[in-house]
Design brief:
Length: about 400
């Protein structure tokens, strides 16, 4: 940064040209802004001698799913700030370098490549969306830097290799949870599916739900698709309505889910709406309005749990973020960072390979989202909760389902 500033400033002042002076000032301001944005809240890798552990984070901070990235980042930073307040690692502060992948798989690959080859991070946290984790994980695996996804649920994520972990449940379990809830709790007999064909998460979760719902005696009477970014779903919904399914399962992300719900109700479809953890955003009711109220989705935790670890997290988060109730993604970010920090504290060294081994040994870790134990496939074995969408951006806890 210093060399760049010197290279810009000298010709600016020698020329005494007003336009060059203005350009130089603007350019320097932009450089400072980009550097500040790239590093998030935490400082630069140039200060590596001042810290023991540098974590990299990549996530969707902008774009249609930005609430997921922002919530996850907030949870991560809370965990890191708490650890630093307790002495950090080896008496030195933990640093986090955060990069925005804009909700794009190609940018996720670029971000992880930069984190491991330029920023020299020792462990990576991210992504939320399965498609972006699947795209970027091979980079972490190639360079043997451990990567922990807070909440990518598609099974393929950790199948990339032995340096890839997650602290959330996976879609075969999540699909079974919602199929069981529909068939046994709600006594539903027929279901339609509307899946996002561009999303590994949506496609996988739809398949697992369909398989388990049929095993439990239900029938899938319609299975249609859309693509991320679509805004008009009336053709698919009209076809679904004609079949009169008891349940419409929408395993997508909150932006499209909210629009689908509105259009389904406008077409007078009155069946039960259900989905997965991709619904878990305050934006869901902002977009879907009354149409999503009464719907059910699986998630990682309930902020209304009376467990002390949950209530302590919720209280701290609300105090820090103007009374906002943390969603499941914030809780998963918090737990992912805490698992990483716990591994660093017990690792023989802070080399990525040793950190990888320490993460793999995670057993009976008390997280906000449940007790986390990583199995041989580097997946978390833990429960899921079912939440019901209520008015005023509120979710009612319904039940917990254990593996």
């Amino acid at each position: 940064m210093g060399a760049l500033m010197g290279g810009v400033m000298r010709p600016v002042f020698k020329s005494r040209n007003r336009s060059f002076l203005v350009f130089g000032i603007v350019f320097l301001s932009l450089v400072g802004f980009v550097n500040c944005t790239k590093k998030g809240d935490t400082g630069a890798s140039a200060q590596a001698d001042l810290q023991a552990l540098v974590l990299g984070e990549f996530g969707t901070m902008t774009g249609p799913e930005s609430t997921f990235g922002i919530s996850t980042h907030r949870g991560i930073m809370m965990a890191v700030e708490e650890a630093n307040a307790s002495g950090g690692i080896q008496g030195k502060p933990i640093k986090v370098i955060s990069l925005d992948d804009q909700g794009r798989s190609d940018e996720a690959v670029t971000a992880v490549t930069k984190l491991v080859t330029q920023e020299n991070v020792q462990l990576i946290l991210g992504e939320v969306a399965s498609s972006r984790s699947i795209a970027a994980a091979p980079v972490a695996q190639k360079y043997k830097v451990p990567m922990i996804s807070p909440s990518s649920t598609n099974p393929r994520v950790t199948q990339v290799g032995d340096f890839i972990f997650r602290v959330c449940f996976i879609d075969p379990f999540q699909g079974k949870v919602m199929a069981k809830f529909a068939a046994q709790n709600l006594k539903m007999k027929t279901a339609a599916i509307l899946r996002d064909i561009k999303s590994d998460y949506s496609v996988g979760l739809a398949d697992f739900f369909a398989e388990d719902f049929q095993k439990m005696g239900g029938k899938i009477i319609s299975d249609l698709s859309y693509s991320s970014g679509d805004a008009d779903f009336k053709a698919q919904l009209t076809a679904i309505k004609l079949k009169k399914p008891d349940v419409l399962f929408i395993p997508g992300y909150y932006t499209e889910v909210g629009l689908i719900a509105r259009q389904a109700r406008e077409l007078n479809y009155n069946g039960v709406l259900m989905g997965g953890d991709g619904w878990d955003s305050a934006k869901l009711t902002e977009i879907g309005g009354k149409a999503v109220v009464g719907g059910y989705f699986s998630s990682h935790y309930s902020p209304k749990s009376d467990k002390p670890v949950v209530q302590n997290f919720v209280a701290k988060y609300k105090e820090k973020y103007n009374g906002e109730v943390p969603n499941g993604l914030a809780a998963m970010g918090y737990d992912a960072a805490r698992v990483a920090i716990a591994a660093a504290l017990k690792s023989s060294t802070l080399a990525p390979t040793d950190l990888r081994d320490a993460v793999a040994q995670t057993k009976d870790f008390e997280g906000v989202t449940g007790v986390i134990s990583l199995n041989d496939e580097r997946n978390a074995v833990k429960p899921a909760v079912v939440l019901k969408v209520m008015a005023s951006n509120d979710y009612e806890y319904v039940t917990t389902v254990n593996p």
